[in-house]
From TrEMBL:
Cofactor(s) essential for the protein: Zn(2+)
GO aspect biological process, one term: alanyl-tRNA aminoacylation
Molecular function in Gene Ontology: alanine-tRNA ligase activity; aminoacyl-tRNA deacylase activity; ATP binding; metal ion binding; nucleic acid binding
Protein name: Alanine--tRNA ligase
Pfam families per the UniProt record, alphabetical: tRNA-synt_2c (PF01411), tRNA_SAD (PF07973)
SMART domains according to UniProt: tRNA_SAD
Natural source organism: Inhella crocodyli
Amino acid sequence: MTDELFRDDANLLHCEATVVALEEGGVVLDRTVAYPLGGGQAGDTGWLRQGERRWRLTDTRKSKVHPGGVLHLLEGELPALGAAVSVEVDAARRQAHRRFHTATHLLCALLPYPVDGCSITDTYARLDFHTDEPFDKAAIEAGLARLVAEAHPVRHRWIDEAELDANPGLVRSMSVQPPRGLGRVRVLEVEGVDLQPCGGTHVDNTADIGGLVVAKIEKKSAKTRRVVLQFA
């Protein structure tokens, strides 16, 4: 129902759209640049505009009422069904999500264990790894700094489900599986570093991530180690 423009270009911050459905607290649009909560990544915020009217976009979610729809949660009285609106994403928040999400791919390359939890916000990124091995904070920070400085290109492509089935090792997450039934799956490649299915938004080059620090390493259970990243 909603054409998700951000899947092919995370640099897009604005688009024109039409309201195709109304839900409590928000609207579903025919197209959008706003990323909906999913895959561990927080939803985009920003604004919707119609002429001189402006609504604060407080969150973006996948619609539970309209399959394939993206729900834009708004403050105040909703625009009318069929209204032509413009969508504008909060650029600073989007960029933070892109930087942190790409950083988690670098973390996966440095720590080759299954991932059983993930959270990506505009202030931190967290990955939970299924292992009982101890982690070295200084070594992780040094590895991240090296991969950022090496300026690896970051790109996505689509593969068919049969190709994914033939390469099950591409899936690192134990808790979030790639969506099935569409015939194709989006994979994210950090050139020479990491390749795995991912629908999130990312920077175009690891150099765009900037400085990172390991804010915390926790032993969450006998078989779970948590790593929390923040910007330096």
